[in-house]
Amino acid sequence: MPELCVTVSLCFSCHSDPLLVKAARGDPVSRPPAWMMRQAGRYMAVYRKLAEKYPSFRERSETTDLIVEISLQPWKAFRPDGVIIFSDILTPLPAFGVPFDIEEVRGPIIQSPITSEEGLKTLHQIDLEKLHFVRESLKILRSEVGDRAAVLGFVGAPWTIATYIVEGGTTRTYTTIKRMCHTAPHVLRALLSHLAQAITEYIVFQVESGAHCIQIFDSWGGQLTPEMWEHWSKPYIEEIVRVVRKKCPKTPLVLYINGNGGLLERMKGTGVDVIGLDWTVDMADGRRRLGSGIGVQGNVDPAYLFSPLPALTEEIQRVVRCAGPRGHILNLGHGVLVGTPEEAVAHFFDVSKTLKYDAPQNHAVEEPKLVA
Q1: How far apart are CA 187 and CA 113, in angstroms?
Q2: Three-state SS for 150?
């Protein structure tokens, strides 16, 4: 894996990079860093108690004090190697002209979906001041965590964000936006281009606010055929990566797609530092397909956290062995499931901290191996 002698933030001193940042850029590390997607949330009793007091998700995810408190709940409980801001991929939408609501049962609701040139007129350049709570929260998190863990920001990829804007919310079929690829491609391209620009600015904003690392969620990219993803998602992710590389050359970028088994090689071509694998891809197979020149993240099945703890231990060790000793961030293959025992989450992180890479003296001949 190429050595990138860089540090990780534009506006913070990084004399000692967190373990996750080192792993993300392929530097030698003593063990795989670990965090979990949906790390903060309903599986934690302390979160459920807070949610009873503040029942609105928008309030919880758009109020600085609550964002910080929720983001730090798993940090205080489990000491993961990454602390991700409590937010949502749709959070920046109102800042560029797309208001939305979140209903308890239906989820996100966009009252005026964009499916025509007329709808595009409501869009405008992202107003980052409307996202001041993200800036304030990241600064506080960076101060609280320091360099003991990486502070993670995140965004949705243009295609994934566009599915909500075009469909008017969550969908299981994606028929409206897939039809639009053929019936109004110029409108969809204009929307995706606008989203790419806004998301790029939002990434830079998060980095300048204190994020060590950014994860791009193309959550619904796996709903496209590989050829369609190549045409309708990849170019916009590539554009984001290209611009962010110029403005934030020291910030690792992670790309995650749910259901990405048919897209791994194409994902590698986006230029990101790390590719997140879901649990349906065997980690050894994923590593073979991607090669050693790019980082991997994942990919323990979230359901393993409902298994006996010895079984969870064995699966963690297997995944880490298959990923190899460099460029691996230990994670789940998807988010933490509701109802997951907190004891199992604690065990996941406890096991991760006992793992060690055994580095032989002659590095040119043999790569380090995992000592379980």
Answers
A1: 12
A2: strand
For 346, residues 6+ apart whose C-beta sits below 8 A from its C-beta are 77, 78
Burial label, 135 (beta-carbon count in 10 A; 0-12, 13-18, 19+) = middle
Q: Answer whether 113's CB lies under 8 Å from 167's CB.
A: yes
Strands 356-358 and 328-332: unpaired
**Which residue, among 266, 278, 284, 268, has the nearest Cα to 219 in the 3D structure?**
278
Q: Per-residue confidence at 369, pLDDT binned at 50, 70, 90?
A: low
With contact defined as beta carbons under 8 Å apart, do 91 and 82 qualify?
A: no
Strands 107-109, 150-156: pairing kind: unpaired
Candidates 362, 329, 65; CA nearest to 212 is 329
Would you state the structure tokens that stand for residue 118, as one six-digit string?
A: 């007329």
Contacts 24+ apart (CB under 8 A), 337-340: 337/43, 337/302, 337/303, 337/305, 337/306, 338/41, 338/42, 338/43, 339/43, 339/306, 340/43, 340/302, 340/305, 340/306
Q: Whole-prediction pTM value? A: 0.92
Is the CA virtual torsion 196, 201, 205, 211 positive or negative? positive
Point out which residues pair with 83 in neighbouring strands.
151
Torsion of the alpha carbons at 185, 161, 268 and 291, rounded to the nearest 10: -140
pLDDT per residue over 39-91, tens digit each? 999 999 999 999 999 999 999 999 999 999 999 999 999 999 999 999 999 99
Pairing of strands 253-256, 213-217: parallel
